[in-house]
Amino acid sequence: MLKIAVLLSGSGRTLDNFHERIMNGTLDAQIQVVISNVKGVLGLTKAEKYGYPALYASSNEAINAILQGYSIDIICLAGFLKLYTPPQALARSVINIHPSLIPAFSGDGFYGARVHKAVKKRGCLVSGCTVHFASEVYDEGPIIVQKSVELEYEDSPETIAAKVFAAECEAFPEALNRVNEKGVDFFWQRVQS
């Protein structure tokens, strides 16, 4: 069972998904702590309601100081809108979800609605999400799981976002279960040249 920390910046929709799947037994994880870099967000209120420690920390240093008080296997970036630098001991144990099929529509500046607008502008008929390990460069760590979604010509960026988020709700828990099964090193070693 993975012991996870959840870092978020907003409404906590991914936290909802994790909590639901832990409760129904389809995600083999325990949430140790939820941290937001934004004060008073809905995600922290939800964490408190679920019974998880819910804390605010504005900087990487403050986040890492909080994490020292918990036994953590994996740090999940769940709508965390800041470049995060983990403590050295967890440098290869940070997992992010990106709302496109990396390497398309990824990198610095591509997040949230910006991705879906770019997908629409390009006229893509397929999009999706990628769960990957985070590194010091946006969206370049080893890929764990990708899920694709078919798009229609008339889909709006909002419709695309809804389709992709539905895929994210499947992909992130699946990725965590795979990491639990195979271990962190498996994913970093499979992309080494």
Structure description:
There is one protein chain. With 193 residues, the protein is an alpha/beta fold. It folds into two domains: 1-91, Formyl transferase, N-terminal domain (Rossmann fold, 3-Layer(aba) Sandwich); 96-193, Formyl transferase, N-terminal domain (Rossmann fold, 3-Layer(aba) Sandwich). It contains six helices and seven strands; from the N terminus they run βαβαβαββαββαα. α2 (42-50) links the parallel β2 (29-36) and β3. It is globular.
Work out the radius of gyration.
Answer: 16 Å
Q: Which parts are unreliable, with pLDDT below 50 for 5 consecutive residues or more?
A: none
| Record field, number of beta strands | 7
CATH A-level architecture of the largest domain: 3-Layer(aba) Sandwich
User: How helix-rich are the residues, as a percent range?
Assistant: 25-40%
Provide a count of the helices. Answer: 6
At the fourth level of CATH, the homologous superfamily of the largest domain is: Formyl transferase, N-terminal domain
If strands are numbered along the chain, what order do they take across the biggest sheet?
3-2-1-4-5-6-7
Shape: globular
